Amino acid sequence: MPKKNTIKWHLGPHWHQLHPNVQRRFNRLPSAGAPIIYDGIMEQVACSRAGWLFAFLSQIIGNPLSPHQGTHVPMAVVLTTRPGKPGVYWQRTYQFPGKRPFSVTSVKKDDRGRMMEMVGGGFGMFLDVFAKNGELHFKSSRYFWKLWRWYVPLPHWLSPGETHVIHQDLGGDDFRFTITMDHPVLGRTFYQTGVFHERQAT
């Protein structure tokens, strides 16, 4: 059975509200043999003290959050799939100066009509996906822990905050990737933004 384009399916008729370049980027699926790779510079990678603590504690489930901060940080983003596994895997590798490469891997997929992004240990978040001003937006609605077939909701205060990711076309081959996390009590815990372009096959 062919894999479903989860993002396009969830947007439905709103898909055509996206900028044509954004549609082009997300109207295809990678594969294990033909990954999609983006290179760019994260102009800013920042976190609060609370954000750093969340990043430190989450190392046990596979480093889903960067504890490092910096400006003009090179990054590669690799999109691929895995045989027999649903969804698209996103691996983001930061090259912080003077540090070993730091990679964050997650998978975006659909389960029973709900879009989600999962990291290690069965932890993840349900996502609302929508188009606005030609941009593609992902916004978390609830964090959870998956226990067998059940999704156990986590209290909002136990999460690093509401996650909001924006893919904004900049013209040509460039786009801006921005992610914010805002906690209901602790305020902004994470902020990252940078400009990327697709790596051309050689």
Keywords:
mainly beta; Lipocalin; 10-stranded antiparallel barrel; 202 residues
How would you describe the overall organization of this protein?
The structure is a single chain. The protein is built from three helices and eleven strands. It is mainly beta and 202 residues long. Helices cover 11% and strands 51% of the residues. It is globular. It has a ten-stranded antiparallel β-barrel. The chain has a single domain, classed as Calycin beta-barrel core domain (Lipocalin), CATH 2.40.128. 22% of the residues are buried. The protein has helices at residues 6-11, 20-26, 49-57, and strands spanning 36-47, 70-80, 88-94, 102-111, 114-118, 123-132, 135-147, 150-153, 162-171, 174-183, 187-198.
- How far apart are the termini? 30 Å
The CATH level-2 architecture is identified as Beta Barrel
Q: Order of SSEs, N→C?
A: HHEHEEEEEEEEEE
**Alpha-beta classification:** mainly beta
Biggest sheet character = 10 strands, antiparallel, barrel
- Based on CA atoms alone, the radius of gyration comes out at 16 Å
In total, the number of strands is: 11
Fourth CATH level, the homologous superfamily? Calycin beta-barrel core domain
Helix content: 10-25%
Mean pLDDT: 94
Bin the strand percentage.
Answer: over 45%
